[in-house]
Structures are given as C-alpha cells and as structure tokens.
Structure prediction request, 397 residues.
Amino acid sequence: MEALSYIAYTLAVAVVLAFGLSACAYAAYREMLQGGPDSPDFFLTARRSVKTFMVAWSFFASAMGSWALFGPPSYCLTAGATGTLVYSLFSGLPVLLVAWLGSVVHRLVPDVVSMADYVRRRFGLLFSLYISLLMVLNMAIAMTAEYTAVGDLFQHVLGAPRVPIVLLLGATAMLYTAAGGLYVSIVTDQWQALASIIFTALLTTLVLATFPSPLPPLSPNLGWSNPLGLASLVFMPVSLLATTLFNEAMWQRCWASASPSSLLWGAALGSAAITAVVSLLGFAGLLAAWSGVYQPSGPDDSGNTILFSLFRHQKWALVTVTLLSVTMSESAVDSLQNAMVDTIASDIAGVLAALRCRERRSRLRGKGGGVALYRLCSPRGCAVLTLLSRSQRYQGA
Prediction:
C-alpha cells in the first residue's frame, strides 16, 4: 500500500473504533443512571423515547450506507440523468410511506414489537413467518451489499486488504448494539449522520471549487431521453419501495418515535436529507461521465468507481471518501443488525405463544370442554383459552 492508503486505513479504523467505544461508554453510563438494564421490550423497540430530530437523523443514517458511493453515481451510465433523478427521489420518498403506515399500526397496536409481530397478530403465524423470511432475506442482502461496497473501496480504490475492515465494522457494530440495544443505535445514528453530512459537504465544496469548465454537450445516453432512464420511472419506485417496506430497521423508528407528529416530521426531514445526499452523489457521477474525467478501463468496467475519478488529483479527498464510507456503513450495519434481531426474536415469541395456545387447547379437549377454534397466534385467543382453562379447573374442583 502507498503512504496515503496507510493513512486512510488507519483513520478509518480509528473512526470505527471511536464510534464503537463511544456507544459502549454511553450504554454503560445510561445503565448506571437508570439503575439497571433496559427491559427486553425497550431494548428491542426504544418505545416512544425518540423526538423529531433524532428520528430524522436516525432515518437518514439507517437508509444511507456505502452503497450510496457506488450505486447512484454509476447508475447514470445506464439510465442517464432521468434514472439518476428517479433513483434519488425514491431513495427518500418511501420513508414517508413507512412513517405514515407505522403511525397507523402503532396506534392500533401500541405494544407492537416488529412488523412481523403485527402481521402475526393480524393474519396469523404462517403469514408472519413468510413476511419475516422476506424481511430477513432483504436485510441480509442489504448487509452483504454494505460489506461488499466498503470492501471494494478499500481493495480497488485504496489498494488495501478488504477483509480486516469488514470484520472490524461488523464486530464493532455488533458489540455496541448488543450493549445498548435500539436506543443506543439511534443515538449513534445522530453522530454518524452528522459526520456523513460534514464529509459530503466537504466533498461537494471540493468538486464545485476545482471542477474544470466549460462542459461538452451532454450525450444522449447521459441525457434525459435515455430509454432505460424513462423505464426507471416504473421499476425503480417499485424496487426501492419494496426494499424499504421489507426493512425492519425503518419500522423500528416508528415504534421508537415519541409521538405521531415526531414520527411524521422526523420522516419528512430524514427523507429530504436522504434525497439530497443521494442526488449529490448521483449527479457527481453524472458530472464525471459528462466531463470525460471518468474513462472506463475496459469493456468489463462496471463504472462502480466513477465517483472516485473526481478526486484523482486531490489524494487527500480519497481519505475523506474513505471516512465517509466507513461512517455510513457502520450506521447502516448496526441498524440492520438490530432489525434482524428484532424480527427473529418476535418470530420466536410468536412460535412459543402458538405452542402455548395449542397445549392449552389440547388440555381442554382432553377434559371434554368444547372450545371455539381461535386464531393460533392471536393474543386474545390465548387469553380466552386461559380463562376457559381456569373456569373448567374450578368447576372440576
């Protein structure tokens, strides 16, 4: 590795560890102040504890990640300016839908733990397991994409080994989320989101101050009439909406919000921030292709590193990009880890509740009691079965 790569790698490791140690220290301090650990429910949901601006920063940090340094900038090569604009808009807009639906669900079921938990109560165990499987698969793909993106940055841009930084990111996020749960994850989102905004602002200022002009005419492939760009008006909203809806990390922000107004206003601010940052990064890639700064290395070049071609003459800017990458990745990974634990835990609880209901029902049948067949996973059904069981026990006595 070159000297610059060593510097970037060292600073990246320091940033990851700084966030992790700060989060662990905050979790320990908070536990000391309240005289003990959080309840399991609060650990998973941070229920009604997060106000508007914390919600906004948390939505932003959960949605962003290293993918934003690769996907939106390179998408212009395929779909042009129209595709880049659609990608930017629908990276943020689905957050508004999740917030609105989440406020409705939380009003109907105040003690909901996860979206899988709500589906189990409303539609039963089988459909809940199906939704949970989709959610875990979607979040696992997102987490894999994060690790791949940050690894690609270190390997292909810095010429550094990819595995150590990926392992450090995953282990650090796992450590502090295990120590503090969702609330500490949301607190770290504030720090990570602020750092991401600062790094993005620095890079934007650098590009505006140093980029050569005038620009050549915009080629049809990069322009607004690109056929794939126009087609993206249909398939990109569906894709990005599904990705957001099947991400429990987004729903967790709904359960954690202090009030419906905090949730909706926070989601609006977070959505605007997501759209703005993805737009800046996406159109930076378009600018690199438009100006000719980016030149493909060959026919197999996917263009994933197009954003970094803007900083080939400002080596220190690559250090800033590296710090931006690990900051956004850590915030995304800790949110995904929390969300996967929440989804799986609610499924286990649902299965255990179903087994208890089945055991009670078989016990009543064995005593000859006629009992209506309630929905297997309904808490109300379990409660009624419990009352009937007690009444028959008293009658038998």
User: Anything to note?
Assistant: The radius of gyration is 24 Å.
